[in-house]
Amino acid sequence: MSQNRRSYNRAAYDKNRRGTVSRRQNEYIYGNTVRKLDFGWEEAPVRRPDPKVRKNRERARHMSAGYVLFLAAALCTCAWILVNYIQLQSELTAMTKTVARRESELNQLKLANDEEYNRIISSINLEEVRRIAMGELGMVYAEEGQIITYEGNRSDYMRKVTGKGK
Q1: Which of 85-89, 110-114, 145-149 is the least confident region?
Q2: Which residues of 118-157 are buried (b: 16+ CB within 10 A; e: fewer)?
Q3: What is the pTM of this model?
Q4: What is residue 134's DSSP assignment?
């Protein structure tokens, strides 16, 4: 009545495996090789395809001259597009390098221009300019009635020229 652990596990294993274990229990293998089991499979008879189907299959295996020409034209078109694309990419790269070089040159010129402007501004002596303007050229400061203010409605500038001869 009582089963030991091993036989209990074996019974549970056999129960889970169902029919395959019961078949194996009845077979005994002699020697060190396994016999080939005959499952009783039959090969399906070879059917000859319909002549129309066979003819379509043969046509599909061979390429016609028109199809070959179409493939050659498509290949040439793809090659031409690819070559043009690569040329455009190289031109774009060259232009990008040129723009970068010119921007660098522009920045250097702006820096040199700012330095020169600051040098010139710092070298101007405003007292000397005032002395020459008043002494040699006869310029004077504007008086109260000579100053006219004008307010424009646009951002343009206005030039008013008044002369003694007019």
Answers
A1: 145-149
A2: eeeeeeeeeeeeeeeeeeeeeeeeeeeeeeeeeeeeeeee
A3: 0.41
A4: I
